[in-house]
Amino acid sequence: MIRVEPECYPCFLNQVLLACREGGAPREVTEELLRETGRVVSELSGSEVPARVATGLHRLIKERTGNEDPFRQVKERALSGFRSLRETVRRRVFQSGDPLREALFLAGAGNMFDHGIVSREDAERFFEEVSSTSLGRFDVEKVRDSIERAWRVGLLLDNAGEAPFDAVLAEVLRAMGKEVWLGVKGAPVIDDLTLEDAGRVGLTEEFEVISNGSDGVGTLLEEVSPDFAGKFRESDLIISKGQANFETLYGDVERTCFLFVVKCPVIERATGYGYGKILLLGEESCAREGESLTSGGYRGGNP
Amino acid sequence: MIRVEPECYPCFLNQVLLACREGGAPREVTEELLRETGRVVSELSGSEVPARVATGLHRLIKERTGNEDPFRQVKERALSGFRSLRETVRRRVFQSGDPLREALFLAGAGNMFDHGIVSREDAERFFEEVSSTSLGRFDVEKVRDSIERAWRVGLLLDNAGEAPFDAVLAEVLRAMGKEVWLGVKGAPVIDDLTLEDAGRVGLTEEFEVISNGSDGVGTLLEEVSPDFAGKFRESDLIISKGQANFETLYGDVERTCFLFVVKCPVIERATGYGYGKILLLGEESCAREGESLTSGGYRGGNP
Under a CB-based contact definition with an 8 Å cutoff, are residues B131 and B213 in contact? Predict the structure, then answer.
């Protein structure tokens, strides 16, 4: 797992500010929550996992604002564009010479958009702009081997905006003869896909979709439902989408590969790849607890 | 004066992180200071002035790190490039058809660079990139009138990187027959110019340079030396550089115009101009305490 570093401190307050703004919280409630977050960070130590701290803050926001889904509007936009974007992605993937590679590449790139790609125009711009120059480490051959050896594959979904990409990746996996299941959140958290959201866009009819039973940021294995935990354990391979899943699972699980875009300095240092890079880490990169991809870690002084 | 708004909360932690990094503070000290800042923001109310809160934080950083000048390296770079940049600016200003306008424009644009423009290449890029599209409200004719009516003019300097621009503006004011003095900080704070810095680049030989006697962010009138306060009061016009001086003086002083680049959402709302815009506000825009340039203020909900 990834541990709290100095850059996380201001980031926690930024996350609260963003959630309050997206959820339409009044100014006084926003300020009360920011003060409360000040108290939370004043008691932090370096041993916490950032996604766990964020989980606590998002729960506090829901409680204090009485709004169980502050990012609802963002998700609504993403869900309304789901089918047409998925169709575009599907065409590109199945017309390419290497559908698995293309699906992994686009699903990784889709993780850039936390807040959902919606309009046809946005999607077109996305496909124009995304290119292989965005690639960091991309263990596609390792992952291809892992998939070929696997029978049951779990794909842990992340935010609603990238779900159309993930759905196409799941189709490719199924076309390769795999038994595929999709992992979603147990309740709204940021703009992540829930079982209800998955149902609304028809994913539950096509695939086995399993709620992790938790409203935590990322995947907090100590909090997930027995159903999800069993599925996770019994799978031959897990493909984990997004930075928060990387933060919470990396180093603690086997048979898992990670696909995400680097979005903060802590993960830049942990992975050795800069902001905006798409990473696909093959399963053996996370064999041992506490192992770091690089020598990483915050260093004082000038860069 | 400008009051704390929700966006200030994460910003305070970011400022501490930046100062610790620039000053080379070890990780443990950085984390201790961030936790302490958490305690400070947990007790904030909306009536504080952001620059005053920041002042307290910068003092705390100096005390805990034992480093009286965390931005020393940044300032050294700025000071080492001072003379050649000033020469470039001087040529552009005195070769232009309207030296006062050009000097105000470039001194305003120079405020973009908190961390100093150093190399010849950076300066060239700056002059290529800065253009009138960066202008927000620019009350140049009002300010020209104010200057023409004034005899004694004080120019409150800001960071060391923009001081070469300010020096040229001071030259233009003197060429217009004004008695010009320059206001600097009483001790290091962020990368602002001090009396010692002004001496090192020869400004004290050319101009009357007055220390404000304070290491506060911006200009905290309740903290300045009697010498500075007298000079401020007896001047016919003050030209105040930088956002922090605007934050601390706006609405509370007369015969003052403000020249700065908008650098945060709180000032965006207070002024009605977006990030990166260069503003020159004539003296009558700040006649009354509490008056806002626009209807401003934080609003919850989606933008």
Answer: no
The pLDDT value recorded for residue A125 is 77
DSSP category for residue A286? G
Smallest Cα distance from A206 to chain B, Å = 34
Which residues of chain A make contact with B20, given a CB cutoff of 8 A? 6, 300
Other beta carbons within 10 angstroms of residue B79's beta carbon come to: 20
The nearest CA of chain B is from the CA of A112 a distance in Å of 21
- Model ipTM? 0.89
pLDDT of residue A127: 80
* Cα B77 to Cα B73: distance, rounded to the nearest angstrom: 6
pLDDT of A288 > 70? The answer is no
Nearest alpha carbon to residue B162 among B87, B230, B239, B106:
B106
- Is B30 in Cβ contact with A298 (below 8 Å)? yes
Residue recorded with tokens 């020869």: B202
* Distance separating alpha carbons of residues A294 and A2, to the nearest angstrom: 13
How far lies B58's CA from each of B19, B147, B191, B294, in Å?
Answer: 8, 35, 12, 30
Task: Flag if B300 and A35 touch (Cβ within 8 Å).
Answer: no
For residue B293, what pLDDT is reported?
Answer: 61
pLDDT at residue B303 tops 60: no
Condensed to tens digits (0 to 9), the pLDDT of residues A62-72 reads 999 999 999 99
> Domain B76-286 adopts which CATH fold?
Rossmann fold (3.40.50)
Which token pair is A288? 């041992």
**Which tokens is B161 given?**
């990187």
CATH topology of domain A77-286: Rossmann fold (3.40.50)
Q: Specify the amino acid at residue B14.
A: N
Amino acid at B222: E
Closest-CA distance of chain A to residue B273, Å: 20
Number of helices followed by number of strands (H, E) in chain B: 14, 7
- Residue of B14, B298, B303 with shortest CB distance to A27: B298
The string of pLDDT tens digits covering residues B152-169 is: 999 999 999 999 999 999
What are the boundaries of each domain within chain A?
8-70, 77-286
**How is chain A split among helix, strand and coil, in percent rounded to 5?**
50, 15, 35
**Which of A7, A36, A38 shows the shortest C-beta gap to B39?**
A38
| Tokens, residue A22 | 């997206």
Give the alpha-carbon dihedral of A265, A267, A273, A276, to 10 degrees: -70
CA dihedral over A13, A15, A20, A24, signed as positive or negative: positive
Instruction: Report the pLDDT averaged over residues B81-101.
Output: 96
Do B302 and A21 lie within an 8 Å CB cutoff? yes
| B15 CA: distance to closest CA in chain A (Å) | 9
Q: Which residues of B touch A31 (CB under 8 A)?
A: 6, 9, 44, 46
